[in-house]
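Sample pair:
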Amino acid sequence: VALVPATAATAAAAALVPFDPWLRDGLCTVGAGGGAVVWLRFWKCLGTRGYVDSTLSRKLVHCGTGPLFLMAWRFYSDSPSARYLAAAIPVLNIV
């Protein structure tokens, strides 16, 4: 389900943050974490206000969080530490 080929997305990420892989991966982690928080709060707000049934909003959060997280993977570097920073997002979502 890629709208942009992986090589183009990786090249774009490298162009935005061409230097330190730790900084690039850290920014990716912050962006993915921020996106997860916005996604969660959006559906929670719609469920709380009664626009969407709370059960449906919870299911949409669960079904949508994974694919959004997978789309962020391509922006991480090939550094071995990138996998740990990427893994921090689901861990923090659990907490």
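The chain has a mean pLDDT of 82.
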